[in-house]
């Protein structure tokens, strides 16, 4: 497998060389460098093999750091790892929405995939509502791939990986992690285990709701302004916590200006990990670390500057279209 | 700076075309039924078509931009467009007995509102004002396109043309006074529109423009749509917007952080009766449920919080005097 673009060839023969190769790709990705199409293909195939064996709801041990939406903000993802120990030392759960909106969806997603392949027990990837063919066609990932490769192959490889991502995780049997929220069709976590997840996210039903729903001050299940999923309130959360004997639902999916927001007497938390979302929202980001005693601690971080100290642009600001009303 | 400001019209046009292509506009409830706009999509397609023969470069820029617009932008374009249409329409309906009502669209760019309005209200004189280059481009397009030209031609009875395209640098006080005095009537009830215009002017020039206009016309309303920077201590939207626009296209918004709230923005029209809402207020309170569910059916709206952040930083003001 020839995976870099500097002319050297790395062959995957033994586990050792595979790891060395992954480490090299990781370095390239961190620099935002181009990864060859056949290399992306190979990574995606390996990732599918690995993810295929994970259950819909993965068991994870403490201590672990829970991370919310990333949305292609590669430089902020690197900050996230820096501020929270790094995958070499700490365990992570990513709650989905790796791609779309930011300029580096591919690099962000591949970096997480490489970490998953390199340190399978230290990183859990959960599917977000953006990890679908339909949404990535609207929200930027597809266009990014067309821009970077001139064809949609890489997008297709990635979408096939999306289909294998877990739907949720459970930490020490006490903290339930999901991208969006609850579903009126799901009472117990066991019911999630019986979903056939290896497909494009449907427009309705349990799998859709888990990825799309939002908590809100509502008395019961209500229509979501997003056009998919539901709004659910304290009643639904309390019921779910009690039925499943858990103490917290950790989810992402909604921008929170302060990076995180606890609701319903601390029974649910939203974690948001894309600072200055879309390079214009002005929010900070957070990750949540759950320790051995299930104590919560939040790490807040801000966006990287669009230029480094030398005045070099690291985030392209010359967008094809400016997202303001002018 | 003049060029950079002119180019913002391409953004406005491509946003409108994107909203049209996805079905956000025209709104049947607001634009067709309430404002009696017809052929909305067609007139925009005609305009885009003729733009191609006037400038391939601008056409391809706009065409590219309209291909990848996010739902959050389409919602904002929808809100901006229909809420201004409604304000204009309500005023015109309540002034149908006047022999002449005039609309002065400051920094008109490629706006095509004049077409349905001139047709619907025979007592309206419509004056589009912008920089020379913008006016020349618009004039060429409207001249070239038979359908659009016909829609704007004099009435059958041979009355003088009720549509005027006039070039003027609104930063130049003397030129503005001269232009407005020559081409408009100071006695007629007047609608002044400034849609993302004041935000590009420096404080002094925008104050002068407002006072010149309010001095010339005896009675009227001023409809103004602009971004506001935000006044809360933790609100960084405006600062980030200024630096993003400066870095990416050298576009300045000199008063974004001066008139950073509904209150401070309204203070520019101190002697008028002012109503002001931010666009999120309008989305939450003024758009009926059926219309909201129609919008929802067009595209998945990924991020409601993001829409809220954007729309709380744009205002629609109506100042009456």
UniProtKB/TrEMBL annotation, chain A:
InterPro entries: Calcineurin-like_PHP (IPR004843), Metallo-depent_PP-like (IPR029052), PPA2-like (IPR047129), Ser/Thr-sp_prot-phosphatase (IPR006186). One of its GO terms (cellular component) is protein serine/threonine phosphatase complex. Keywords: Hydrolase, Manganese, Metal-binding, Protein phosphatase. Its EC number is 3.1.3.16. Pfam families: Metallophos. It comes from the Eukaryota. Its cofactor is Mn(2+). The keyword Metal-binding applies. GO terms for biological process: DNA repair; regulation of TORC1 signaling. GO terms for molecular function: metal ion binding; protein serine/threonine phosphatase activity. The keyword RNA-binding does not apply. It catalyses: O-phospho-L-threonyl-[protein] + H2O = L-threonyl-[protein] + phosphate; O-phospho-L-seryl-[protein] + H2O = L-seryl-[protein] + phosphate. It is an enzyme of class 3 (hydrolase). Residues 126-131 form the Serine/threonine specific protein phosphatases domain. Belongs to the PPP phosphatase family. This is Serine/threonine-protein phosphatase. It comes from Zygotorulaspora mrakii (Zygosaccharomyces mrakii).
TrEMBL record, chain B:
InterPro entries: LCMT1, Ppm1/Ppm2/Tcmp, SAM-dependent_MTases_sf. One of its GO terms (molecular function) is protein C-terminal leucine carboxyl O-methyltransferase activity. Keywords: Methyltransferase, S-adenosyl-L-methionine, Transferase. One of its GO terms (biological process) is methylation. S-adenosyl-L-methionine binds at residues 80, 107, 169-170, 195. Pfam families: LCM. It comes from the Eukaryota. It catalyses: [phosphatase 2A protein]-C-terminal L-leucine + S-adenosyl-L-methionine = [phosphatase 2A protein]-C-terminal L-leucine methyl ester + S-adenosyl-L-homocysteine. Methylates the carboxyl group of the C-terminal leucine residue of protein phosphatase 2A catalytic subunits to form alpha-leucine ester residues. This is Leucine carboxyl methyltransferase 1.
């Amino acid at each position: 497998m020839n995976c870099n673009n500097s002319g050297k060839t790395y062959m995957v023969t033994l586990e050792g060389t595979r790891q060395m190769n992954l480490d090299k790709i990781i370095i390239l990705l961190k620099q935002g460098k181009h990864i060859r199409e056949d290399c992306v293909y190979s990574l995606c195939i390996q990732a599918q093999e690995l993810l295929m064996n994970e259950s819909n709801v993965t068991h994870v041990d403490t201590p672990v750091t829970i991370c919310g939406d990333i949305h292609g903000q590669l430089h902020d993802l690197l900050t996230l790892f820096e501020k929270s120990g790094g995958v070499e030392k700490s365990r992570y759960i990513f709650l989905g929405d790796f791609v779309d909106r930011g300029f580096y969806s591919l690099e962000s997603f591949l970096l997480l995939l490489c970490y998953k392949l390199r340190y399978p027990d230290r990183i859990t990837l959960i599917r977000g509502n953006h990890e679908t063919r339909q949404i990535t066609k609207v929200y930027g990932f597809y266009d990014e791939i067309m821009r970077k490769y001139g064809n949609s192959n890489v997008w297709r490889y990635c979408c096939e990986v999306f289909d294998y991502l877990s739907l949720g995780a459970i930490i020490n049997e006490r903290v339930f992690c999901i991208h969006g929220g609850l579903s009126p069709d799901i009472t117990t976590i066991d019911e999630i285990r019986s979903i056939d997840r290896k497909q494009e996210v449907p427009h309705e039903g349990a799998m859709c709701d888990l990825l799309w729903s939002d908590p809100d001050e509502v008395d019961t299940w209500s229509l979501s302004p997003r056009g998919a999923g539901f709004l659910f309130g304290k009643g639904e959360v309390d019921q779910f916590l009690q039925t499943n004997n858990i103490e917290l639902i950790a989810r992402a999916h909604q921008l929170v200006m302060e990076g995180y927001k606890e609701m319903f007497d601390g029974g649910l938390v939203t974690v948001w990990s894309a600072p200055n979302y879309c390079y214009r929202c002005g929010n900070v980001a957070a990750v949540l670390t759950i320790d051995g005693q299930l104590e919560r601690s939040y790490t807040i971080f801000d966006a990287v500057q669009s230029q480094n100290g030398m005045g070099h642009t690291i985030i392209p600001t010359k967008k094809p279209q400016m997202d303001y009303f002018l | 700076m003049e060029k950079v400001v002119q180019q913002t019209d391409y953004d406005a046009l491509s946003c409108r075309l994107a909203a049209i292509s996805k079905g956000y506009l025209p709104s049947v409830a607001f634009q067709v039924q309430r404002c009696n706009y017809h052929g909305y999509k067609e007139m925009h397609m005609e305009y885009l078509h003729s733009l191609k023969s006037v400038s391939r470069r601008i056409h391809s820029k706009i065409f590219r931009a309209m291909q990848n617009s996010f739902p959050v932008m389409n919602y904002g374009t929808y809100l901006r467009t229909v809420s201004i249409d409604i304000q204009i329409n309500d005023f015109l309906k309540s002034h149908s007995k006047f022999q002449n009502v005039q609309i002065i669209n400051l920094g008109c760019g490629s706006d095509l509102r004049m077409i349905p309005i001139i047709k619907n209200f025979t007592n309206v004189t419509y004056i589009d004002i912008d920089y020379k280059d913008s006016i020349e481009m618009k004039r060429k397009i409207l001249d070239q396109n038979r359908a659009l030209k016909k829609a704007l031609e004099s009435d059958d009875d041979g009355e003088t043309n009720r549509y005027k395209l006039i070039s003027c640098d609104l930063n130049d006080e003397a030129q503005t006074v001269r232009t407005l005095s020559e081409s408009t009537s100071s006695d007629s009830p007047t609608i002044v529109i400034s849609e993302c215009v004041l935000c590009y002017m420096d404080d002094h020039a925008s104050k002068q423009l407002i006072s010149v206009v309010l001095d010339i016309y005896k009675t009227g309303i001023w409809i103004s749509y602009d971004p506001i920077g935000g006044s809360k201590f933790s609100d960084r939207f405006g600062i980030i917007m200024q630096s993003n626009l400066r870095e990416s296209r050298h576009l300045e918004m000199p008063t974004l952080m001066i008139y950073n709230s509904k209150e401070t923005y309204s203070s520019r029209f101190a002697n008028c009766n002012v109503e002001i809402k931010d666009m999120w207020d309008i989305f939450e309170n003024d758009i009926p449920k059926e219309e909201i569910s129609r919008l929802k059916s067009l595209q998945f709206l990924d991020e409601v919080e993001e829409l809220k952040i954007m729309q709380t930083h744009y205002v629609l003001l109506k100042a009456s005097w």
